[in-house]
Amino acid sequence: MIKNKKYMKIIGLYGRGKCGKSETLGIFLRSLLHGINISDAEVKFGKDKDMCESVDRHGIVVDICPPGDTDDIVKANIQFVEQNPCDILFTVTRTKGRGRKALDNYAKSINAELVWIKKNYNDDLDAIGQKEANKRLAEKLFGMI
Fold it and tell me: What domain of life does the UniProt record list for this protein's source (predicted)?
């Protein structure tokens, strides 16, 4: 558990598998890491998408953990946060299950505010439309810092 941490906010994107949760956080992370606009951020599988990072944004420490499909991954994300204390954590989980419960329990254990955001997959959108929807959500996340 993080010691001497006065306040932490956790933003959890949740949804079914393959709905764009990790891609959305990957876009958000890449934009923060490289100082580029969301509209210019593209995410490829690998380094920028599948790892946790800690970023200082104007004095606010932001941890971003894009992977989260299993409870083991969510627990690894929590370990990352324990080693890299932050003001805000952005992470993902599936809609229900042990991973989501692990994040709920962690938030309670450190008295953090936990905000859940549902990430939907729109069957009516093509691949380009899905990417644009992910970018719009990534922009919304910026407003939460």
Answer: Bacteria
Domain spans of the chain, in order of start: 9-140
pLDDT digits (tens, 9 = 90+) for 57-108: 889 999 999 888 788 998 999 999 999 999 999 998 887 888 889 999 999 9
CB 30 within 8 A of CB 135: no
* Burial group, residue 116, by CB count within 10 angstroms (0-12, 13-18, 19+): middle
CATH topology of domain 9-140: Rossmann fold (3.40.50)
Q: What is the pLDDT of residue 5?
A: 54
How far is residue 129's CA from residue 53's CA, in Å, rounded to a whole number?
Answer: 27
Q: For a pLDDT cut of 90, what percent of the chain falls above it?
A: 38
Report the alpha-carbon distance of residue 107 to residue 102 in Å, rounded.
9
The tokens describing 122, both together, are 């729109």
φ, ψ dihedrals at 19, nearest 5°? -100, 0
Half-sphere exposure (Cβ direction) of 139: Cα atoms closer than 13 Å: 10
